[in-house]
Amino acid sequence: MLKNDVDGQIPLAFVEEMHLVVSLCVAVLPHVPKAELSSPHSGFGAIHGAVLALATKCLASGRWLADISPQTDVEMLSASVLAIGHGAETKFDIQKRQKERLMRKCIVEYLGTASEFTEPEITPLLSPIVTAPRQEERDPHFLATIPTVGDALEALTLVARELVSEQRVAEGEARTLVGTAEMLLLLLWRHVLYYAEGGVPAANTASAGNGGLKASTATAYALRFLAAPDPETFRAEVGARLAPVLGRLAGLELNGEWLRGSAAAAMAIAGNAPTAMKELFSDLPAFMGQRRGGQPAFGHDIIAQMKVTHASVEPKAEEPSKKEGRVVVELPVIPSMLNGGGNVHGGCAAFLIDLCSTLSLLLLDPSLTVSQSLNVVYHSPATLLTVSQSLNVVYHSPATLGETLRIVNTTLTVGSRALSARTEIWNATKHRLVASGVHIKMQPSPAKL
């Protein structure tokens, strides 16, 4: 699917399928061995190459879906109805633009995850070519297989231009663009810094020992890169192209609510969890604080105070062959959490254990929260596909108004039907354990009529 030409007469459903496949790749990418990723003949290596080739179209071609026309009866109906508030654009035009933006964001997230742009040492994926040819100047017989720094700069320019426009129209659309812009900025910063300092992903950089694996990963793409540029020339060219778009972005007025669920908020969460999962965790009010229909859920005021500070998947200390999900949540004690004696209510502690332990299970198995439309990007509308079977809580000490709670959640077991996690609620202000519990969940049986 990814290797097919996405230009031309294809239905939007095909774009949704590509989005689904790339989203799945983002989720499993951290668990793929580097040696397999660097080999085009391995199972995931071939997929990796196909996603990189798709990235050259998504990033560099501007409106790469502009020529897609309605194919199904539903799409033709949407194409015949004007979208209110969008001038001469039809509902199909709006849907096409939304799919394009989501696909671009997913591709950028894949590039960031594959290049390890949040790690101390980057694995370069963008070729050091700054000038991206216009679409009409591209040789139709040349198939680009590696995205370039110029492609990313062009994508950032496009996103910034759309973000300025959408800021006046729809906050939801703008938040998608904000997330894309942030990841593009980080991706560009790490690559520009690498090449500006004379970095060369060539075969002679591979070394033996512990550092050899990362070097050999970059070596797999060295034959497809052009010669490394002169650092001074490279910095000048990038600066000339980057300055206008940075000026446009600097003029935006974004409040804290817009940044919830964005890449910037995700980067504030420590740990090796996938970026998409961190984005979900960075906006708990939208994920867990609402019922279907957007109405406030039970404890929404408490959920609004919760902040995930760490999310990771690591081998279990007792059994390294098994994985363990770990999520740390912090929140201040607010008045609605107190009992008559002025301490955190026991029911509130159980509520926190219920919610927070579920986050660790979700981190280890993202399939536990997939919407009915298989929206694996984790964003709403999401449905938790498990229910609580038992919740055992032990209370150790009180916590009072204004003190900070630190909730540490670790998975115990994740089976085909039953799942369990352990939670400890610590008083971070007084450094003592407030409550602990074990939460057992299960996947419910189908309803019997």
Explain this structure.
This protein has a six-stranded antiparallel β-sheet, covered by helices on one side. Helix 3 (43-60) crosses helix 5 and helix 6 packs antiparallel against helix 7. The chain is built from 15 helices and six strands. With 449 residues, it is α+β, with helices and mostly antiparallel strands. The chain has two domains: 12-256, no CATH class; 263-442, Thiol Ester Dehydrase, Chain A (Roll). Residues 134-143, 202-225 and 370-384 have low confidence and may be disordered. The longest helix is centred in the middle third of the chain and has 26 residues, at 171-196. Strand 5 (418-427) and strand 6 form a beta hairpin. It has helices at residues 12-28, 34-38, 43-60, 73-79, 91-115, 149-166, 171-196, 212-222, 231-250, 256-259, 263-267, 275-281, 284-288, 300-303, 346-364, and strands at 307-315, 323-332, 387-395, 404-414, 418-427, 432-442.
